[in-house]
Amino acid sequence: MRILLIEDSEDFGSAVREHMIADGHAVEWAKDLSEARYHASGIPYGLVLLDINLPDGNGLDYLREMRKGRDSTPVIIVTARHTVEDRIEGLNAGAADYLVKPFDPRELSARIHAVARSHGNFPKPYSVGALSINAAERRVALDGQPVNLTAREWAILDCVLSRPGAVVLKRKIEEELLSLGSESESNTVEVYVSRLRKKIGRDRIATLRGLGYSFVEESRNGLGDPVDLVQKVRSVVDDFLKKPWFAGRLILDVDGCPAWECKADHAVRIPVVLRYLIDNALTHGLPDIPTTVSVRADGTIAIVNAGPVVPLPDLDEITERFVRLATRATVPGQGLPVANYVIKKVGGSLELASPATGREDGFEAIIRIPR
Question: Which residues carry this modification: 4-aspartylphosphate (predicted)?
Answer without folding.
Answer: 51
